[in-house]
Write a structure and sequence with these properties.
heterodimer, A: Aspartate Aminotransferase, domain 2, 3-stranded antiparallel sheet, B: alpha+beta, OB fold (Dihydrolipoamide Acetyltransferase, E2P), 6-stranded antiparallel sheet
């Protein structure tokens, strides 16, 4: 496969900033609404015709790589394609409703939220859901605060949260931010939770165990019922990190495994855009015992079949405004409704099939298995970060590297269900081409991308945090 | 790969070294630790006069790979900090036992409880 990324530059600099393409002084209308010392007579604005502007952004997108450029198997991130019909819905003028309008005039909006609470509860096997947290990690934090409020309400001061060493870093951060001490649980030799280690880690101080299943190695925690029993017997709660839910849709439910709290990463599991695609959402589901502690407000049906907001009885308060980032939630609702029960189950089955197919095709060793929706290969004697840089030259996005640390030079790979056999083969070709290359080639990669190897050390030691830094050079 | 483990230092299992110098004790992180961390990009140090107990975290070291706490190998009062590291954190990589030192303590205890160079070498093997 021959790949060469577009590189738009002038005088060997990347595509110039809009302001560098020509500015125009524009007079500011004097309307007298602001005091003179707060206003200027003129402002400099980029002066571009529409085609120039369109080309500018198209060029920037050509120098980038995203889910619409090619395969994007960034492990644990579930980089699905974002279907355009959900974007169309979110762009409808009728979707742009101010949340503070009278409830009687936003029944459609509240109805979608009620429907989504219900969908998510059914998918996770939970009894009640809040849509409010604005991201996955914010959902985790809200979930941990709910656990804390529940224990305190029962007059039970618990100081510790137990987390396996293979867990996502956000678990440790959420627990610490909520004021808990973190007890790190070493993995067993097969990469799963060690039941003996868990027995000795839990105590009357244990507020919760945070777990993702399948775990970050893509391994299903087969002993989940025994794990749940150990934690519950100690009076603790079981928290499900929804980051890997894409492996389970329609196949198994965290609630049925004994989990009490979970968050949903809608940008992963339900294909809403990641990061730069806009604000996020990290709904949280809980079992009925914990429902009174969820953030406020939630929505519910009244006897008259209208939908109303209400504050749960012992709510922890607000973690964001209103119901959260509504347009992201609308996209989530649309995605679930379009796929339906069978479609969601099929998505998970294909995500697992794709991961297993790809792992079979690549030359790198995969030390742990059998796995579900993602696998962690080892780059062996090669440096995983160099492997990743070199894969860019073959026109694919690389996997997550060097994590989890229990695999040497980890290449954590999650193709998701969206890839066809053909693009999986393209990925495998990239892996295998790089596997056969020498260190010198790897260390000088990438050579075919718009931006070459980024100097991470210089970027961290003297960061340029705004466009003004360019002027200072 | 072999790492530098000077004979005139004693070590904490979490990879800090301590060296007696004219009544004070100088502290930094080991060659092994700087290699594991990779390129150091930021160091946070305590204020002079701060009192530390044994194994208190007294600072933070950040590399492009990780952020770690730094622990006091022994109890004492901070009498000096190597503020050069705030601008040139790479000294920790270049010279971990020399110019990359972090703090000096007026010690409240001896170094006897710390690992000897041989014991530390066994630990990182």
């Amino acid at each position: 496969m021959n790949y060469s990324q577009a590189r738009w530059s002038e005088d060997d600099r990347y595509e110039p900033l809009l302001s560098e393409k020509g500015n125009r002084e524009v007079a500011v209308d004097e309307d007298g609404l602001l005091p003179d010392d707060l206003t200027r007579d003129t402002v400099e604005l980029p002066a571009l015709e529409e085609p120039e502007l369109a080309r500018h952004y198209t060029r920037l997108s050509q120098m980038n790589y995203g889910v619409e450029s090619g395969p994007f198997p960034l492990g644990s991130c579930t980089m699905k394609y974002n279907p355009k019909f959900t974007e169309d819905l979110a762009a409808l003028p009728s979707a742009a409703v101010h949340p503070d309008r009278d409830e009687g005039t936003v029944q459609g909006l509240l109805g979608v939220m009620h429907g989504l609470q219900d969908y998510l509860a059914r998918i996770g096997g939970m009894d009640a859901v809040t849509l409010q947290p604005p991201a996955g990690a914010a959902g985790e934090f809200a979930g941990v605060l709910v656990a804390k409020a529940y224990h305190e309400h029962n007059g039970d001061q618990r100081s510790e949260i137990v987390i396996p060493d293979s867990a996502h870093g956000t678990n440790f951060a959420s627990a610490a931010m909520a004021g808990f001490d973190v007890v790190e649980l070493p993995s067993a030799e097969d990469g799963r939770v060690d039941l003996d280690a868990l027995e000795s880690a839990v105590s009357e101080e244990t507020a919760a165990l945070m777990l993702t299943n399948p775990n970050t190695l893509g391994l299903f925690e087969r002993d989940i019922e025994a794990i749940a029993e150990i934690v519950h017997d100690a009076g603790g709660l079981l928290y499900y990190d929804g980051a890997n839910l894409n492996a389970l849709l329609g196949q198994a439910r965290p609630g049925d495994m004994g989990f009490d709290i979970m968050h949903y990463n809608v940008h992963k599991t339900f294909a809403t855009p990641h990061g730069g695609g806009g604000p996020g959402a990290g709904p949280v589901g809980v079992v009925s015992e914990l429902a009174p502690f969820l953030p406020a407000p939630r929505v519910r049906k009244t006897e008259g079949e209208t939908v109303e907001r209400f504050d749960p009885e012992h709510t922890i308060g607000k973690v964001h405004g209103f119901e959260g980032n509504w347009l992201v939630l609308l996209k989530t609702y649309a995605y679930i409704a379009r796929l339906g029960d069978d479609g969601l189950a099929d998505a998970s089955a294909k995500a697992v099939l794709n991961a297993n197919y790809l792992a079979e095709q690549i030359d790198y060793e995969v030390p742990f298995g059998p796995f579900h929706h993602e696998f962690v290969a080892s780059a062996g004697e090669q440096d995983a970060a160099d492997v990743a840089k070199r894969m860019l030259d073959y026109g694919v996005h690389p996997p997550t590297t060097k994590w989890p640390e229990i695999v040497d030079e980890a290449l954590m790979t999650e193709p998701t269900e969206v890839e066809t056999t053909r693009s999986l083969d393209q990925l495998a070709e990239a892996f295998n081409a790089v596997a056969g290359e020498d260190d010198e080639t790897l260390e000088s990669a990438p050579s075919e991308t718009a931006a070459r190897r980024i100097d991470q050390v210089a970027a961290a030691r003297s960061p340029r945090l705004s466009w003004q830094a360019l002027d200072e050079e | 790969m072999s790492f530098d483990i000077p004979e005139d230092c004693r070590y904490l299992a979490s990879h800090e070294w301590a060296r007696e110098e004219d009544g004070t004790v100088r502290i930094g992180i080991s060659d092994f630790a700087q290699d594991e961390l990779g390129d150091v990009v930021f160091v946070e140090l305590p204020d002079e006069g701060e009192e530390l107990d044994r194994e208190d975290d007294f600072g933070v070291i950040e590399s492009i790979k990780a952020v770690s706490d730094i622990y006091a190998p022994l109890a004492g009062t901070v009498t000096a900090t190597n503020d050069v590291l705030l601008d040139d954190p790479e000294l920790v990589n270049d010279d971990p036992y020399g110019e990359g030192w972090m703090i000096e303590l007026d010690p409240e205890e001896s170094l006897d409880h710390l690992l000897s160079p041989d014991e530390y070498a066994d630990q990182i093997e």
